[in-house]
DNA sequence: GTCTATATCAAGATAGAC
DNA sequence: GTCTATCTTGATATAGAC
């Protein structure tokens, strides 16, 4: 793997595990096997490297979500497919967790990828809810924007309660609750 | 205010703003106006002080929630009262945010207050959902545990999406979505 | 109980040789 | 492009005087 590539991958892992404040250049150098000089040659310090890592992670999450949203089935089934997809629950969301990082939120350039991902996700979910209403699967009295936001939030909040309990169970219960309220009937 | 008290209050503020990893003993000393020697005399280092601060914040959140849960009205109205209460949305949850802190989750003693708060909250919400079912206000086909977990999660996730957008709006939309799905009718 | 001095190691980089 | 050396400041304490 090329040097910038190794730096980005190591940074993505560290940001996911420890957040931005908890990630040091030294740790990035050790995990990537890249030396100090090379790191500062290829990137504009910790912030520049983190930005590249965040952009890639956000794009991956977006592609993964879109694969479910654009898949087969009714709108409700596609929302369920997204909510029920395999997740490493206790690791949390590699992008959502950075939202609690002071230095990220404070700097517009670093907050931008988070903002774009979640704005896209809420809008996409709102569209699917509206589509479900057209199909007759979702109550038309509901506000699609509000329900879309709620779906995005329940995933992020699910990670929070799961990590506090050191167990995936509260996450899974949260998703189950949301799906039941949406009238989704699974095979169970 | 007594010295330990000043230390705890300063630490609570800093943990809320910057998280555990982002809070240094030096910052605590500066914000509290207490010297190094005094800090280490009264508390077992950063971790001990953080533990005291976290325990107090968790208790406050619990008392605040219980005031809504034990208030007047139907179960659904009391859930709504909790969800709609005044919040400093962009600051997030002083306890929930610590869930993304590596050093907190890693150390059992520091994770305990988070676990206890959210376990209590989910159970309390599940009870209220069951009560709402008994009252005939909530669909009895729903699993109270799952819906309780979902309600706890939507608040925490609401903070995540709000902070990413630097706006309270996504938080408010998420809560609105959850309330609509619960069949809560407000005055709007 | 509080203060100042001191210690060790890490954070986050820059400089200049190769 | 990469390496080693070096720099400044901060993190997280401990020691011992007052």
Brief digest:
2 copies of one chain form a homodimer. Chain A is an all-alpha fold and 188 residues long.
Account of the protein in words:
The structure is a homodimer of 188-residue chains. Chain A is mainly alpha-helical and 188 residues long. Chain A has a domain at 57-181: Orthogonal Bundle (Tetracycline Repressor, domain 2), CATH 1.10.357. Chain A is 71% helix and 0% strand. The first copy, chain A, contains 9 helices and no strands. Chain A has helices at residues 3-18, 25-32, 36-42, 45-69, 75-83, 102-106, 108-135, 144-165, 169-181. In chain A, helix 5 crosses helix 7 (108-135) and helix 8 packs antiparallel against helix 9 (169-181). The relative contact order of chain A is 0.12. The model of chain A has no long low-confidence stretch (mean pLDDT 97). Chains A and B meet through helix 6, helix 7, helix 8 and helix 9 of A and helix 6, helix 7, helix 8 and helix 9 of B. The structure holds a DNA duplex (18 and 18 nucleotides).
Helix and strand arrangement:
The structure is a homodimer of 188-residue chains.
Chain A lengths: L2 H16 L6 H8 L3 H7 L2 H25 L5 H9 L18 H5 L1 H28 L8 H22 L3 H13 L7
Helix pairs in contact in A: 1-2, 1-4, 4-7, 5-7, 7-8, 8-9
The first copy, chain A, binds a DNA duplex (18 and 18 nucleotides) through helix 3.
């Amino acid at each position: 793997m090329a040097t910038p590539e190794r730096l980005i991958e190591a940074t993505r892992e560290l940001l996911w595990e420890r957040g931005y404040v908890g990630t040091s250049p030294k740790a990035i150098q050790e995990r990537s096997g890249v030396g100090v000089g090379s790191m500062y040659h290829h990137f504009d310090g910790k912030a520049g490297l983190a930005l590249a890592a965040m952009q890639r992670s956000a794009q991956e999450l977006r592609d993964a979500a879109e694969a479910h949203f654009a898949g087969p089935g009714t709108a409700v089934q596609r929302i369920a497919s997204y909510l029920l997809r395999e997740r490493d629950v206790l690791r949390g969301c590699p992008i959502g967790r950075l939202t609690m990082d002071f230095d990220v939120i404070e700097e517009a350039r670093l907050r931008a990828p988070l903002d774009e991902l979640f704005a896209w996700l809420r809008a996409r979910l709102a569209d699917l809810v509206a589509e479900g209403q057209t199909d007759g699967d979702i109550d038309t009295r509901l506000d699609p924007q509000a329900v879309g936001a709620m779906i995005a939030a329940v995933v992020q909040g699910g990670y929070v309660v799961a990590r506090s309990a050191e167990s995936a169970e509260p996450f899974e219960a949260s998703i189950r609750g949301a799906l039941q309220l949406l009238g989704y009937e699974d095979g169970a």
